Structures are given as structure tokens and as C-alpha cells.
Amino acid sequence: MRSVPLRARGTVPRALLSSAPAPGGRMPLSHVALAAAVAAVWGVNFVVIEIGLDHFPPLLFSALRFLAAAVPAVFLVGRPTVGWRWIVGVGLVLGVAKFGLLFTGMDQGAPAGLSSLVLQVQAVFTALFAFAALGERPGPARWAGMAVAAGGIGLAAYDEGGSGTFTGFLLVIAAAACWGVSNVLTRRAAPPDALGFMVWVSTVPVLPLLGLSLLLEGPERDLEALRSLDWTGVGVVVYVAWVTTVFGFGAWGFLMRHHPASSVAPFSLLVPVFGMSSAALILGEGVGPLRWCAAALLVGGVALTSFGGSRPARRSPGDSPQ
Question: What pTM was computed for the model?
Fold first, then answer.
């Protein structure tokens, strides 16, 4: 998947926000098209993951995704610009926990379209964790957004419960929570180069995920998947590593450097739109009335949570601004 645009996942490095807005405050049409293309790439990514899970065990697939994202890019981005504790912390929480849970949840039956929708609740978790860890107090609009999004999650859970894939649904929720934690860690790290940071972060999960795959999925299953590797398997790894990570993060960081976050971030709400529509078109996933209602509640709640504003955090004299 998918790696996570920093603002789309609920966090924006200070260095990106410090760039001056574009003249006139409007995004040129080419940049609008680029932002929409990134949202489409990230949405379709869930379908690609679903296809990839037919070729690889979930933990091995996730490990290969990070290996391909890190090599050879890590030799091209220069030395890390933040401390290793942040790289390792985000790598473990985002790479091992979040993606491990997401891929396993989808392997357990969580549909691609629903996963693309439910994962956006990470914005709610990010706001809650930022409140607890950073002292960022949500305003009334954000609290309302969290309540609306929670209602959407409840409705989606009710709709999904009848299909027998509730375990996968819960794993995707847990992945969203881990994503929220990684967003808070990324905010604390405040990397000046978002793409370079994510490339270095991608080096961390490879060995832990391979170890977990050998332990939980078994060496026989892993070796069989690698022996039977075909061009489709290669293609899905390249897509989730290079298209969603290298292109996606690079383009999103470019847009964030040239425009206010309030102009760019709303495009992230298109991700579940592309995810659900591509899953319906390519995988034949049905979307009933309850799921559409859940989608409306979740997208609306996430929009309020993301853009509703927050009260200034109470900081001690030694704290750096966030």
C-alpha cells in the first residue's frame, strides 16, 4: 500500500508547512491532476495488495514491499536527516505493526474496498494520540468528526459482521491505530525530507517481517511463494514499493512544499473513493447501501477530524513547537 503520505495519514512535517504558498493561493491544473493521480495510485493500491496476497503470505509480502522500496533508493537519498531512534521507531510501528496487520487483515478476508475506507480512521487515532502525547487539544469540530467517524466504523462493522470476515476487519482497525502512533512519532521527528525519511524507514521492517514470516507462516510456505514467483508477483511488489512509495511520497512531498496543507490534504479523501470503485470494477466487490452510508460517515468524520482545527497545545518552556 502503501505507504503513507505524511499529511494524508494525519501528519505534516514542519519543514513542508514552512514553504510559501503558491502565488494567488491556487494550485495550477497540473498540480491538481498530480494530487488526484496520487490519490488514485493509493486507492488502487488496495486492489494490488489483494492480488499480491494470492502470490505471497502476508508478512512475506510486506517484507518484500519494504525491501524493494529501500533498495536501491537508500543509496540515492543521502544520509538520514533525523535521529535513528525516530527512523527505527517509525519503521517498527508503521512498517512491522501497521503493514503487517493490514496485509494480514486483508489476507483474513477484509475486502480491498472496505480496507481502503476503514484505514482512513487513522486520522481519528492520530488526533487522539496527539492529544495524549503532544498536548494538541482537538476543537469542537474535531471531536464531532471523531464521533461521526466512529459511527461510520460501527456501521461498517455491522455490515461486515454478516460476511464472516470480522477478524480481518478488526485487524485493519488495529493497523489504523498503529498508523496513528507512527504519525505522532513522525511529527516529533519532523523530517525535512519526507521521501528520504520514508526510504530509510523502509529499511527497518525488512528483517523483523522476514523473521515473523518464517516463524508464523513457515519457511515452506515462504519458499514455495518465492519458487513460484511470476511476472504478476513481481509487478505487485514493484507497484506497492515504487509506485505507491517512491512516486506517491515524492509527489505528495512536492505538492506540500509548494502549496498550503489545507489545499493539498483534502485530496487524500479521494483514496477510499478510488479504492472502493477500483475494487468493485476489478475484483467485483459489491457495495451495498449500508456500506455507502458507512463510507459517507467515515469520509465526513475524517474530513472534520483532519480540518476541524485544534486548540494550541500547552508546552513547557523547553518544548519545541509542533
Answer: 0.81
